[in-house]
# Entry
Amino acid sequence: SSETLSSTTDVKNLVHPYTNLGDHLNKGPMIIDRGEGIYIYDNHGKRYLEGMSGLWCTSLGFSEERLVNAAIAQFKKLPYYHLFNSRSNTPAIELSAKLLEIAPKNLSKILYANSGSEANDAAVKLVWFYHNAIGKPEKKKIISRLRGYHGVTVASGSLTGLPANHLHFDLPIDRILHTDCPSYYHGAESGESEEAFTQRLINNLEQLILKEGPETVGAFIAEPVMGAGGVIVPPEGYFEGVQKVLKKYDILFIVDEVICGFGRTGMMFGCDTFNLQPDIMSVAKALSSSYLPISATMISQAIYDKIAEQSDEVGVFAHGVTYSGHPICAAVALETIKIYQEDNIVAHVQEVAPHFQKRLHALASHPLVGESRGIGLIGAIELTQDKASKKPFDSSVKIEKRVQENVAKHGVLVRGIRNAIALCPPLIITIEQIDELFDSLEKGLDEVLEDIEK
Ligand code: PLP
# Structure
């Protein structure tokens, strides 16, 4: 059949990102055929509620006609133009005004790219360029966090604090350092209060800066809520303490809003939810509801001014890619933000998130669940063999994969990551659909529990 043929061709031709390629060779792909609202259908016609918005990204679901129409209109008018050498295009210009209208107030300039990785890569280069420009060329180290995820380019993959992204790639590059992950569940010492844990992490950050020499540390990067590291919501007071340390040593703050941006945490940006004052902010994914690839690195006027001066000396600002500010991608992103505003997506998230969080937190009493955590419409459950000791399952049990597969049988896609199950549904999800998601998740968990107890 044509299905078997395309499966065979896939296995024959493709290198799949983040895939156990050995397993893939045996089992073949799950082929997604079409989407409707928050649901997708595979090539056998089976329907799934997309509990992960693809890769934490399709905030408006899979069939928003307005985005399709915005793309088609721009396609017909001007399918491509670039922003190099002072050229511009109207969608890129209009999108920049829209983005700055909603972004944290001290951000005032925008550099476009195609992916979150590139946006963070640009952030690294901007930090380096800026410190050269202000006569502090030694201030180049960037501190990231263990379990943080910032992408896969050589620089952004170095920022990422997950072992698999470094192993076999000879990363991180030097100048990129990692400090603690703010997960109380994983990182607390025995008997340590959450407050003491938070203070210890802030002290550790300061100690790292002092050890390296504050004159060598240029920036700190963080996701407001860590996504791919397991959905880690920072404890109370964490970012307040971190920002004080950064200010004290004159260190720039890069906020990676690639997942948190555009309503995910219950405010327009994670910066709003956690009161963050970024010097640089990266966005991607929900910027266009991921209908087309586009990302942006937003910077403060102070950084921009220095970079503009320096580029005058060199002759140009020598960074950017062929598709920076691509007009069709920009037109779709512009329409996406208009929808967020017109439909008041933030108000919708605030309305349905309490139910999402209630169902999520109810799972904490399940025998397989050590912790449930989340904010807004993002969350995770941590799977454990033993609630008291928090002992994870042996990796040979493949616990998160088993849960993921059982839940999929019940028509819901969730993502297993490192002993945890992540949830990040489209922001347009309704209360009834939230129940559908959690009902299937519970069924899947119960089946795996039964299976393990046998
Ligand atoms: N930053 C965060 C917080 C992400 O979650 C991701 C991707 O998941 C990235 C950066 C990298 O984005 P991309 O995959 O578009 O390069």
